[in-house]
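User: two proteins, same treatment. go.

Assistant:
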Amino acid sequence: MGIESELAGISTPDVVETSIGEVRFRDGAPQPGTAELVYDYLDRARGVEVFLNAMSGASVHALVSGPRALGVSQVGQVLVFDGLMDSASLFLTGNTSTLYALPFIDLGADGPTVVEVPPGMLGAFDDMWFRYIGDIGPAGPDKGAGGTYLLLPPGYEGDVPEGYFVLRSRTFGVWTFMRGSVANGLDAGVANIVDNLKVYPLARRDDPPEMEFISGSAKAFNTIHPNTYEFYEHVNELVQMESDEMLDVETRGLLASIGIVKGKPFTPDERMKRILTDAVAIGNAIARSTVWYPRMTGARIYPDTNSNWMMAWVDKDVFFERDGARDLDARVMYHYAYTAVTPAMAVSVPGKGSDYGIAFLDGNDDPFDGSETYRLHLPPNVPVNDFWAVTLYDSQTRSQLQTSQRFPTVGSNDAELQANPDGSYDIYFASQAPSGYEHNWLETIPGKSWFAGLRMYGPEQPWIDQTWRPGEIERLT
């Protein structure tokens, strides 16, 4: 091979056609217009990457910030859905069937913090980049009997007293979610939390502040990150208030490439604002596409069929790893539509816990249309030890669909739910209830899209080994 062919491989023509336009050079030296063009592209591409890679942080930042509208802003305050979660609040794919309790924790303001967990709770601690810290309940060290946890802030080097389940966080903020049982009734579940849940600084263990439980039921507030330029401002807020341990050097450099640097103001000029506005629109389209049309293997519950039932966790892996590498699309798919990171939510144990199927498309692979009528058929002997429930969500907000039904859910706990003669069930989705199936109906809104979640509480072996399968959600009109 001669030197001429080598030069041909490393040389750049004076004019090159690309997907972003024509780039021009003078014997390899970029022309000024080319440099401007490619820098616009580079800034836009990095803006897209920030949206996709910082989504986890923006999401948990919104989860912590949203309840402040209700007054949940200091240690000892707990947001509790004492009337269950309904469609009033914007909360990613929340359910209407279990009792949520969300304490406020800020290790930066309060130092090491104690959380006394009541018995019968299930949940987890996540940091402000939505990384898993530890479990509460059967999968945690308290094993469901309740116990006392001690959360330590980043860089803590002080004494660690005995008698606690000790967890260390890489961030000052810690998002803690707990779900209480309502098996003995909602009032009993609420009383268990109000009477026994305690959150206080370790420094005040001998004189803890009085607890304050603030209801989130039937209240409108937002816990979802924006999909506009404001997204970057939220990420900047999080970076400014958080520990240096929150980000690795690669992610810190990615944020810095668009102007988000701790200790410095985020003041993009008009050109950069325009580029980031474009970038977040592209990122939002990418995120929604990974949710509705995932191309990752392991996203479908029944990959041997054309079924559109999806799982939230690709391959049930909460750490988004595949063959020793991070599955970036799987991470985006999860954080755009769901919350809470814990391995316990991705483990199927016969008769215990919960499992989920999500349908974003109908049996014809089309997004759902609120103007049409659909039906979901559940074969006989739905395999659950506890109960099953179907909930509708708004495609825009990924929160419970807001209709005349405060709780957009039907399931086996509904006393008036109508079974077919063979023990199967048909659930209808339409703007008007089909005659004779008023109690098997979830309301939709003409002109608005939706998706559905099937929750299996205490899933039995036929669900786990897939010998029992739900039907597709089929369009009837």
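Protein 2:
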Amino acid sequence: MKLTAVLAFSLAFLGCIYAQDTVKVAIPSEKKVSWFDKISIRGYGQVRYNRLLETNKDLKCEQCDKSWGDNGGFFIRRMRIVFFGQISPRLYFYVQPDLASAVSATTQHFAQIRDAYLDLGLDSKNEFRFRIGQSKVPYGFENMQSSQNRLPLDRNDALNSAVPNERDLGVFFYWAPEKKRHLFSSLIKEGLKGSGDYGIFALGLFNGQTANKPELNNHPHIVARASYPMKIGQQIVEASLQGYQGHYVVAKDQLSTGVKYKSDLSYQDSRVAGSFVLYPKPWGLVTEYNIGKGPEYNKITDSIETRNLHGGYVQLNYKLNIGHQLLYPFTRYQYYEGGKKLEKDARSYTVKELEFGLEWQPFPAFELTAMYTISDRRFEDFTLQDNRQKGNLLRLQAQFNF
């Protein structure tokens, strides 16, 4: 009996050792992470129709939506796919083409780069980083805010005329503490219509000719921005101050035959702006104003001159949750007096516009926006003189997100 017990115990002991070794051998090796595992894809598209209840077919807005007015119909405003990823702890990349760019008044739906940049972190938390490539110029809250998140269908004339298409080629330094970076991110994830993470402080150099345009002089623009979001009770507010300085060169293909201009086509291009945002919890408020100097057509002298400009907007909105659905009623008034450097002869503008709208999100992948616009626009160049157009129109946009 004793021998049998000793033998049984020994076999059991050896079995445990064998089982333990078997388990160790069965542990799978760690999977190697491939480069494509670090890349994500998302995007959105917008389809519009602007002709409902239209009262003036000659009322147009070249900067905001080329399908306004006569011969405008169904229009793909944006069709974008974003490729992005943190390919190493301190290196992030972001590439966004738009598949619905219009290269002329009669040719649409060409692919064009909107963003193509990398973020190079200088510390382990990437609180200090350089952004290198074509990206948004840090000037103005609404300019920074993605069109995927913005409530009005187009950006305001006053600040967007500073950097049409919002982007340029350059190098930008951004700094924000980790806690504030998380706050910037949450303002978008929670449906509060944030602008994204462009730092507490930003400083940069850029060409100054706007996105997808070559540099035309040897003097880059310089831009600086300070922005601070904070929680006050249940509310979140953000205040910003920003400005830039440089010289813009009017391209020769922007000129009418007969218009007068400086021999080097170079004009002072400088602005300063203030922004204030109360995020919608549930009431929201956004207001911005800028002043500065830039090229503008003067019909008295038939010349493109450096002239003063000013203008801004105020927007009131509300966030309403109905089950899993979201409703955002909003209204915005904007005013602008000045030139638009990217348009023909640096076209001269006076804009007074009131908008009422409603964005409906029945589920995250789809949004429908209806906006009624009451507009009074003077836009004049060498060919189009004494041109002031007033009118109203109802605008519709369907947007899908993926």
